[in-house]
């Protein structure tokens, strides 16, 4: 099919003329000025003649902020739009030029094909991205990624604008005159459409539980992450590939048995030692009944569960007081780990000594916002029962197989070696436990950590702990070895994916980079996404411990995981009343979608309302 290309703001049409005659391309070259005004410019008449003779369409007096006015609906689907060195003219400052770009991007969205590109060339420093060298301060730049985001565009590529390689090109238009300007260090910014921000409706999940068909309302922050099927047989997702490579290597050393089929999303267990703040509670309330919509969806005969985000009836340590507080007849929670299932298999005696039992699936827990803290990730647990006294050799064999598999994966993907270490728990920082300690109280202490060396000094940095190893004595003769690995974190480190949220993106440009499940170094399709900072300060209730995990969870929920950092920047206590005030700084940023300043402002308002209603704070 013919590729339709629109060129805007041509000065002397020399750039358009350089593209004329390209096979399979239909050019439409436009200029803001009238034909009479352009005619006197050097080389303009020659370029226009060449374009028309080559079959291109040449239009004058075209306003780049009103593009749909110049093209009939059937002629608006351009595959590529070029706008080289846009400027309001004369001595217009950065604010006016930002406004020009914002209106241009909105206009482009109306005439661009769904998978089209917008190319914007800017002089060195104007864009305000890290690609500019030297980089201007953000407030003194055109903030191109932020203004483009307002129209639903993301920066997908950026490269030098090499004028010397464009045959016959000569820039013109300095201060609205027929004069050239300096384009040394200029950059071409390539934008593509973003998938829209997701506003998820409440979701009912239906499962089998205790031989009954039950339904429950999925916690809002997990709606786009439940039942995604990343580990299913037909999946090409990197976490599936990492799991397959691990189990293939381990099958060389152990007989394997997969036990994924019997793992329920919901777990019921003792509350002792389980902190409410870190658990997604699902409660069965006899007072509730399915709505009309739910009945029409065929769940009228099922037991309906609901999700409790923030139960106020907790003691000072955050433990739930179920009987006196919430009046819940029966309680469940989304599984925070697969280790209890592995332990249950061992306790029932339904295991084969010497066989490596494999459990895998997504696990869920509330956590603070940080680069490596995930409210959901895919865990794989390897369990092997051996004779007492041989557990150390089993651990060594298990870890060696894991090492070999990770080495092989990393070597294939990046061509370099990644060191895997087994570190004793006594020498490891407990702050690294976030991804594995959600259910720690129900098993024996962690003995080893499986770590990847992610810096040149040979030490483990934050986020490099990908697994834990535990042992437990069963009877007098058997010791069970448990090894738990975070598949998501392994995929991130091996493929060099900088943001865990990218694993859950709905943008097809992610999985397209891993055809047939082949692992490769990931190349982001959203470069230098804009970030926005908002502060919030409030008085916390008297004599009540502030629940920081709940605070972070509300931020995750109202923003759709767009909050990447929450920092306490100030605290103050009134000497007269003893009231305490906290001030937090939130940073909003998307890894895969266009996120505008206005959208973030709305998220911040929702966040303020949320903490006021749910945490009973008083906003300042």
Automatic annotation (TrEMBL):
Q: Does the keyword Glycosyltransferase apply?
A: no
EC assignment:
6.1.1.20
Which BP terms from GO are recorded? rRNA base methylation; translation
Keywords of the record, alphabetical order, are:
Aminoacyl-tRNA synthetase, ATP-binding, Ligase, Mitochondrion, Nucleotide-binding, Protein biosynthesis, Transit peptide
Q: Which reaction does it catalyse?
A: tRNA(Phe) + L-phenylalanine + ATP = L-phenylalanyl-tRNA(Phe) + AMP + diphosphate + H(+)
The family note in this entry says: Belongs to the class-II aminoacyl-tRNA synthetase family.
Q: What is its main location?
A: mitochondrion
Protein name, UniProt field:
phenylalanine--tRNA ligase
Q: Provide the FDX-ACB domain boundaries.
A: 527-620
Which Pfam families does the record match to this protein? BMT5-like (PF10354), FDX-ACB (PF03147)
| Organism superkingdom | Eukaryota
List the residue ranges forming a coiled coil, or say none: none
Any one cellular component term from GO for this entry? mitochondrial matrix
Q: Name one molecular function that GO assigns to this entry.
A: rRNA (uridine-N3-)-methyltransferase activity
Q: Where in the cell is it found?
A: Mitochondrion matrix
**PROSITE patterns attached to this UniProt entry:** FDX_ACB
């Amino acid at each position: 099919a013919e590729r339709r290309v629109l060129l805007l703001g041509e000065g002397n049409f020399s750039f358009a003329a350089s593209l004329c005659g390209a096979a399979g391309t239909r050019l439409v070259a436009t200029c803001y000025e009238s034909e009479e005004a352009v005619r006197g410019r050097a080389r303009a008449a020659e370029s226009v003649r060449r374009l028309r003779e080559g079959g291109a369409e040449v239009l004058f007096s075209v306003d780049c902020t009103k593009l749909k006015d110049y093209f009939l609906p059937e002629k608006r689907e351009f595959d590529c739009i070029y706008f080289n060195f846009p400027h309001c003219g004369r001595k217009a400052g950065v604010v006016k030029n930002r406004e020009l770009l914002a209106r241009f991007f909105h206009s482009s969205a109306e005439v661009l094909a769904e998978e089209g590109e917008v190319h914007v060339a800017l002089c060195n420093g104007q864009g305000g991205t890290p690609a500019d060298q030297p980089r201007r301060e953000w407030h003194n730049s055109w903030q191109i990624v932020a203004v483009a985001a307002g129209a639903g565009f993301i920066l997908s590529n950026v490269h030098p604008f090499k004028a010397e390689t464009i045959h016959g090109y000569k820039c013109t238009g300095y201060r609205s005159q027929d004069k050239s300007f300096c384009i040394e260090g200029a950059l071409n910014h390539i934008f593509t459409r973003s998938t829209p921000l997701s506003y998820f409706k409440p979701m009912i999940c239906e499962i089998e539980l205790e031989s009954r068909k039950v339904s429950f309302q999925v916690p809002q922050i997990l709606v786009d992450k439940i039942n995604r099927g990343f580990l299913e047989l037909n999946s090409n997702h990197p976490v599936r590939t990492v799991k397959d490579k691990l189990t293939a290597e381990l099958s060389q050393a152990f007989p394997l048995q997969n036990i994924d089929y019997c793992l329920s999303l919901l777990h019921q267990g003792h509350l002792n030692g389980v902190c409410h703040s870190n658990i997604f509670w699902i409660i069965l309330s006899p007072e509730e009944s399915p709505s009309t919509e739910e009945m029409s969806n065929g769940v009228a005969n099922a037991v309906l569960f609901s999700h409790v985000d923030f139960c106020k009836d907790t003691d000072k340590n955050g433990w739930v007081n179920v009987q006196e507080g919430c009046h819940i007849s029966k309680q469940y929670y989304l599984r925070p780990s697969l280790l209890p299932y592995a332990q249950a298999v061992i306790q029932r005696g339904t295991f084969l000594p010497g066989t490596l039992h494999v459990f895998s699936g997504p696990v869920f827990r509330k956590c603070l916002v940080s680069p490596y803290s995930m409210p959901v990730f895919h865990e794989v647990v390897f369990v092997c029962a051996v004779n007492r006294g041989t557990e150390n050799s089993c651990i060594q064999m298990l870890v060696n197989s894991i090492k070999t598999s990770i080495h092989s994966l990393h070597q294939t993907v990046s061509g370099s070696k990644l060191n895997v270490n087994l570190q004793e728990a006594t020498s490891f920082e407990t702050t690294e436990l976030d991804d594995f300690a959600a259910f720690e109280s129900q098993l024996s202490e962690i003995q080893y950590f499986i770590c990847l060396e992610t810096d040149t000094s040979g030490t483990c940095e934050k986020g490099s702990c990908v697994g834990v190893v535990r042992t437990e004595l069963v009877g007098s003769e058997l010791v069970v070895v448990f090894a738990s690995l975070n598949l998501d974190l392994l995929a991130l480190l091996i493929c060099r994916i900088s943001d865990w949220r990218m694993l859950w993106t709905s943008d097809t440009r992610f999985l397209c980079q891993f055809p047939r499940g082949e692992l490769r170094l990931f190349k982001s399709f959203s470069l230098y996404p804009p970030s926005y900072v908002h502060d919030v300060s409030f008085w916390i209730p008297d004599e009540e411990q502030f629940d920081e995990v709940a605070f972070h969870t509300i931020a995750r929920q109202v923003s759709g995981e767009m909050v990447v950092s929450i920092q306490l920047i100030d605290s103050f206590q009134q000497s007269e009343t003893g009231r305490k005030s906290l001030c937090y700084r939130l940073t909003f940023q998307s890894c895969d979608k266009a996120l505008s300043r206005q959208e973030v402002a709305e998220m911040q308002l929702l966040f303020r309302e949320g903490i006021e209603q749910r945490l009973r704070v008083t906003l300042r």
